[in-house]
Specification:
The protein is mainly β. Helices cover 6% and strands 38% of the residues. The protein has four domains: 234 residues, Pectate Lyase C-like (3 Solenoid), CATH 2.160.20; 184 residues, no CATH class; 44 residues, no CATH class; 47 residues, no CATH class. The chain contains four helices and 44 strands. The N terminus is likely disordered.
């Protein structure tokens, strides 16, 4: 079946045997090739050349004698989904010199030399988010039109005016405490309402959500109900969505807090403001950016942002090159499961590769590799002559041959038996099970880079002498530094500052009150035990109080 310059054609439920090509589309677009059986064709089961926007779905393609199951040449924005492709000589799917937007999704591909072969093809995640001078808007629980608190929560908010998103009229948003908002048209409901922070990392949003991300991860807004929140504020020409909270792994630590905003301007501009981005550990990729589902188009602001700053994006597809996506395929019993050659910025997500000779092979290519299961392959699960800038998260594999998930010391985050090799999210891999260097994978504070502080007085606070080691040294050592006097267990980390008896950094009349209460009733005071200010008798006395009052009155 040869179709040249055809558009919007539906061809379904045909059986095509022993042709040169079962179906050949040349310079054709927006056709549907659905539920056909193509068997024993000598070249390719389906061949697309200079063709775009076609859907190839639910076809059975078997035993192409000298070619490929599906061959795309110079073709873009095609969807290949739900196909069963088996026993083709060269490739199950071959993507050749086809940059931009082809999506290979939910297929079963087996018994070929290459399961999926991508050659000089792919696309690019267009980074049109630009830096701008830092700005911040006042949005909190006191002036919010709507706010929520808690863990893994979301709230829907009806906009007071429509927001144009790539030509779609957005009437409502669903904001998640895990760092993203879904943009909804009239009649739509949220797709990933009850997520756990892995929406971007797992690829669940693709083709399903119009969504804006800001540090998407397992986040929480529940440490202090008086201060942490996700708030939505309606202002003159914009909607401001602000989150103040922490990552789940930093929960209940006052030292780590994150604070960011997403702004929807009436003119269609989208802005990201990052204020305080102080985190130690996280669970997923902390992606910031946006995705448009109909265009299959993603804009990146960044991953794991930790610095204060502002970014913006004006909706513009004119310079966009769309991504090549290989997603949720079962690929088995091939020589190479996925083979990438001289191809840039393809996305491999949620694929299962089993019993191939090599699972994923990459040559002079850079890709994003997230949440794939690459197990039981005969020689290697991963292999590459040059990974270039390829990176990825949350993959499952054993023999990774030099591949390391981003943020992981060694190999994939998960092993094929289900073990999480970095259970405490500190980068270091479990030493006893996964061959890493982490001696305690249940405590993010303990790893080969941990500093232990000598604790001579055994008060849980250490002095300045320290040792870097994964295992605790023998004797009295602690993880907590800052002991003001490591030979006196009554003095810990509340160090004496001259006259600051209430330990709040300010020198004022309340320090005199604190000292007098101490002298009259023995109430604890931060300066007790430190060298006295006047009489040098190693305790606080009235002479110190008089000296303080003199300082306040005379010196101000």
């Amino acid at each position: 079946m040869v179709l040249s310059s055809f558009h919007k054609l539906l061809r379904s439920y045909n059986s095509l045997y022993s042709n040169v090509n079962g179906v050949y589309l040349d310079s054709s677009s927006n056709n549907i090739i659905d539920n056909n059986t193509l068997v024993s064709n000598s070249d390719d089961g389906i061949y697309l050349r200079y063709s775009s926007g076609n859907n190839l779905t639910n076809n059975t393609i078997l035993n192409s004698s000298y070619g490929d199951g599906i061959y795309l040449a110079f073709s873009t924005q095609n969807i290949l989904s739900g196909n069963t492709i088996r026993g083709n000589l060269i490739s199950g799917v071959y993507v050749d010199r086809s940059d931009g937007g082809n999506r290979i999704y939910n297929n079963t591909i087996s018994e070929s030399t290459y399961g999926v072969h991508v050659d000089n093809s792919g696309g690019g995640m267009t980074d049109n988010a630009k830096n701008r001078s830092y700005e911040w808007y006042s949005c909190n629980m006191s002036n919010a039109a709507n706010y929520i608190q808690g863990d893994d929560n979301n709230t829907e908010y009806v906009l007071n005016r429509t927001f144009n998103y790539f030509g779609r009229n957005i009437t409502k948003i669903s904001a998640s405490t895990n760092g993203f908002i879904e943009l909804l048209e009239a009649g739509e409901g949220c797709y990933d309402c009850n997520d756990y922070g892995s929406t971007h990392a797992d690829g669940n949003y693709r083709s399903n959500m119009d969504v804006i991300f800001a540090s998407n991860d397992n986040l929480q807004t529940i440490y202090d109900s008086e201060t942490q929140y996700l708030a939505i504020c309606s202002m003159d020409d914009k909607i401001v969505i602000e989150l103040l909270g922490s990552t789940a792994t930093d929960y209940e630590s006052t030292d780590y807090q994150i604070n960011f905003q997403i702004i929807l301007y009436q003119n269609g501009t989208i802005e990201w403001n990052f204020n305080e981005m102080n985190w130690a550990n996280h669970s997923y990729d902390m992606f910031s950016g946006l995705y448009a589902k109909e265009e299959n188009f993603e804009v990146t602001v960044g991953y794991k942002i930790k610095t204060q700053g502002s970014y913006y994006y004006n909706q513009n597809l004119s310079s966009a090159v769309l991504m090549g996506i290989i997603e949720k395929n079962n690929i088995e019993n091939n020589k190479y499961g996925i083979y990438l050659n001289s191809s840039s910025k393809n996305i491999l997500v949620n694929n299962t590769l089993f019993n191939n000779t090599i699972g994923i092979y990459s040559e002079n290519s850079n890709s994003t590799v997230n949440s794939n299961t690459i197990c039981g392959n005969i020689q290697l699960n991963f292999n590459s002559t040059n990974w270039q800038s390829t990176y990825g998260y949350n993959n499952t594999c054993n023999n990774s041959n030099g591949w390391n998930d981003s943020g992981i010391e060694k190999g994939c985050r998960y092993r094929c038996n289900g073990i999480n090799c970095d259970a405490d999210n500190d980068y270091y891999v479990n030493s006893s099970i996964c061959g890493g260097t982490d001696c305690d994978d249940n405590n993010a504070l303990i790893n080969p880079n941990t500093k232990w502080y000598v604790d001579n007085d055994n008060d849980t606070y250490g002095g300045t002498t320290n040792q870097t080691n994964c295992n605790k040294p023998s004797g009295n050592w602690t993880l907590t530094p800052g002991d003001c006097d490591d030979n006196n267990k009554n003095i810990t980390n509340e160090c004496c500052t001259e006259f600051d008896f209430d330990n709040n950094t300010a020198i004022d009349i309340f320090d005199a009150v604190a000292a007098l209460e101490h002298l009259s009733s023995g109430k604890y005071i931060s300066g007790e035990g430190c060298t006295a200010r006047i009489s040098n008798n190693n305790e606080i006395d009235l002479m110190d109080v008089f000296a303080l009052i003199h300082k306040i009155v005379i010196e101000g």
